[in-house]
Write a structure and sequence with these properties.
Layout lengths: L2 H13 L13 E2 L1 H23 L6 H20 L1 E2 L14 E5 L5 E7 L10 E3 L3 H6 L7 E4 L6 E9 L1
Parallel strand pairs: 1-2, 4-5
Antiparallel strand pairs: 3-4, 3-7, 6-7
Helix pairs in contact: 2-3
Length: about 160
């Protein structure tokens, strides 16, 4: 048999295997809401797996493999979760804080610092370990901090902090 066919067979077999999600090296700090979301995701994935397994040989093998991969990731995230107390300080940005900041053009933006898996920039939920999260963490009202962005550094001022 030609080596080309052997390599094609190996490539086809590898293509059907899901790519494992990389688990971040940063501590898995989560808000109470973030932990609830992780647990709900695991429950939903377990329900989906039961449905797929009930289909037996008719089950979509790729979907089942993707489900198993997701389950490994989210189970690991639940196990490594380090819940943080609810943010209550209005003097210092913490994980869970709602922060309003202004840029050099006096454009205001409100964000909440959250855990990595809860982050959704479009909703204003910012990973505490991101460049913006790191710039804000520990700052207080009136503090100017540097947000190190790929597009260039931006000095921003913390306006208000709400728990």
């Amino acid at each position: 048999m030609s080596r080309a066919f052997v390599n094609e067979d190996n490539a086809a077999a590898q293509a059907s295997q899901p790519v494992e999600r990389r688990i971040s090296d940063q501590p898995n700090y989560v808000t109470a809401n973030g932990l609830t979301q992780l647990q709900a995701r695991v429950e939903a994935l377990n329900a989906e797996r039961r449905e797929l397994q009930a289909q037996g040989d008719r089950a979509d093998k790729q979907r089942l493999a993707d489900n198993e991969s997701d389950l490994r990731y989210f189970n690991a995230r639940v196990l490594s979760a380090q819940p943080v107390p609810a943010a209550t300080s209005t003097e210092k940005v913490q994980i869970g804080s709602h922060v309003t900041f202004a840029d050099e053009h006096d454009q205001h933006q409100q964000v909440q610092l959250v855990g990595e898996d809860e982050a959704d920039a479009a909703q204003g939920l910012i990973n505490w370990g991101s460049p913006l999260g790191q710039a804000l963490l520990g700052a207080g009202p009136g503090d100017e901090v540097t947000w190190r962005r790929p597009a260039g550094d931006l000095v921003i001022e913390v306006i208000t902090i709400n728990g």
